[in-house]
Automatic annotation (TrEMBL):
Disulfide bonds join 49-57, 167-180, 451-487. Belongs to the glycosyl hydrolase 13 family. It comes from Cerrena zonata. Residues 32-385 form the Glycosyl hydrolase family 13 catalytic domain. The active site is at 222 (nucleophile), 246 (proton donor). It catalyses: Endohydrolysis of (1->4)-alpha-D-glucosidic linkages in polysaccharides containing three or more (1->4)-alpha-linked D-glucose units. This is alpha-amylase.
Length: 491
């Protein structure tokens, strides 16, 4: 905990949630949102946001603050918001306006589109008042331009020699991926020379100041694999907070190289395995999960702090390739009840089913922030996980696969057994998942989604059957629900 001020009564009253470490983030559950698309100010035209226009729809830091109940009531204990720094302004680029926040111009400025310094501070202080964490998305690898010969004076780094010379990326060639420019010839992304000592030193000061000025608890780092891994340890040490990188790769070995340099990466390999295992249009290969899990346990330093997700701002939403929402519920149950930090991209809880960019950055308000079935499932998973973190050995226990068959998988972490299937919502009487119970005989288990109870027989296995369709089941000893508020247990 770092206070830059003398300890007075008022600083003692501040919530102690600044500068959070990996250890602290492990206890969290993250709601990811795009500031422009999460909530509108009162009185704004709610029908004016057309994703195909690729322009600003009006969400701000203040409107996030005004709508935190929706996130907190779903049990989330952290939010990750899209980049806060100044973006390209002026002539509209070929690929539309910078509504998403990733087209950095001058990183020393805030993005005035989303509010003032005081409004950002008010959001973060309200997040902290609720005992939640704030994760800020930062773009370090590159800035944005509308030609390959940009005017460098508008960037934080004004000297062209601090950038790599223009070259288009040859994908698959790691050196080219790190040193050439992302984007395309319409919207090139000038690539900083992150081996240059001036760039390294300037970035270290920049991030230290940004984190302390706004009391940021963690960083999500865009395009982390497009910077050499050796850049990150000093950068993150200077930030002094948890760093979770985007390493867009389903290869476990490739992604794992960036944990160590960074505290964490987003779990792209497991997201890919979940698609392969559960999506209704996919391979339905349940075996992909234990295979990626085993390899992850070997190659990552610590899978308990990876960011487990199904959707993000760059991919078609889960429901765009797996329309049966039952498959979403099963896949997300894995993300919450396994090792790792659950991350839910805004709109997943509303069953949004759009294809990739720009459709997957749709406004949330047309949903009416409804308490959908998927919102409620999300809330139950968070509520249970938050409860087990506070009241059991959840954090120190490692996920184990109890069994798999062609339609399902059972895992155990702490005292929760989660059984997931890929059969979808149609009832099936010809399939089941048989689980050898690790609990002693006569333990009463409760399924937190349905509140059904049953008793473990001595030495026996139990069956999960699908006569009502393929819902996930999360079973915990009834006694351990006390204090959780789930299934009529006390709060
Ligand atoms: C979700 O939960 C809320 C309150 O707990 C309830 O009012 C609502 O009907 C539920 N939604 C669905 C679709 O079951």
């Amino acid at each position: 905990m770092k206070y830059g001020l003398p300890v007075t009564l008022s600083t003692l009253l501040l919530p102690a949630v600044f500068a959070a470490t990996a250890e602290q983030w492990r206890t969290r559950s993250i709601y990811q949102l795009i500031t422009d698309r999460f909530a509108l100010p009162a009185g704004a035209n709610r029908n004016a946001c057309n994703v195909e226009d690729r322009t600003w729809c009006g969400g701000t830091w203040s409107t996030i603050r005004e709508n935190l109940d929706y996130i907190q009531n779903a049990g989330f204990t952290a939010i990750w918001i899209s980049p806060i720094n100044q973006n390209h302004e002026g002539e509209r680029p070929y690929w539309g306006d910078a509504y998403h926040g990733y087209w950095i111009a001058d990183a020393t400025q805030l993005n005035a589109r989303f509010g003032t310094e005081d409004e950002l501070k008010a959001l973060i202080s309200e997040v902290h008042n609720r005992n939640m964490y704030i994760m800020i998305d930062v773009v370090v690898n590159n800035v944005m331009a509308t030609s390959t010969t940009p005017d460098y004076s508008k960037y934080m780094f004004k000297d062209p020699s601090l950038y790599h010379p223009y070259c288009p990326i040859q994908w698959g060639n790691p050196e080219s991926e790190q040193n050439c420019w992302m984007g395309d010839d319409k919207v090139p992304l000038p690539d900083l020379d992150t081996n240059n000592p001036t760039v390294i030193a300037t970035y270290k000061t920049w991030i230290k100041d940004l984190v302390s000025k706004y009391n940021i608890d963690g960083l999500r780092i865009d395009a982390a694999k497009h910077v050499q891994a050796s850049f990150w340890p000093e950068f993150c040490a200077s930030a002094g907070v948890f760093c979770m990188g985007e390493v867009f790769s389903s290869d476990v070995g490739g992604a794992a190289q960036y944990q160590g340099p960074l505290d964490s990466v987003l779990n792209f390999p497991m997201q890919n395995a979940l698609v392969r295992a559960f999506s209704s249009s996919g391979e339905k290969n349940i075996g992909a999960i234990p295979s990626v899990l085993d390899e992850s346990k070997q190659k990552f330093r610590d899978i308990t702090v990876l960011g487990n997700f199904l959707e993000n701002q760059d991919m078609g939403r889960w429901a765009s390739f797996s329309s049966d929402m039952q498959t979403t519920h099963n896949a997300m149950t894995f993300n919450f009840m396994s090792d790792g930090i659950p991350v839910v991209y805004y709109g997943q809880e509303q069953g949004f089913a759009s294809a990739s960019d720009p459709y997957n950055r749709e406004p949330l308000w047309p949903s009416g922030y409804a308490l959908t079935y998927t919102y409620n499932i999300t809330s139950q998973l968070n509520q249970l996980r938050n409860h087990l973190i506070r009241n059991s050995d959840w954090l120190s226990s490692s996920v184990q696969v109890l069994t798999t068959n062609e339609i399902g998988i059972a895992i155990k972490k702490g005292n929760a057994i989660s059984v997931m299937t890929n059969i979808g919502s149609s009832p099936r009487n010809d399939v089941r998942v048989t689980v050898q119970s690790p609990f002693s005989s006569s333990t009463t288990l409760t399924n937190i989604f349905t509140c059904e109870e049953f008793t473990v027989n001595s030495g026996a296995s139990f069956d999960i059957t699908y006569g009502n369709g393929g819902q996930p089941a999360v079973l915990v000893p009834r006694d351990s629900l006390s204090g959780s508020g789930l299934c009529s247990a006390s709060i």
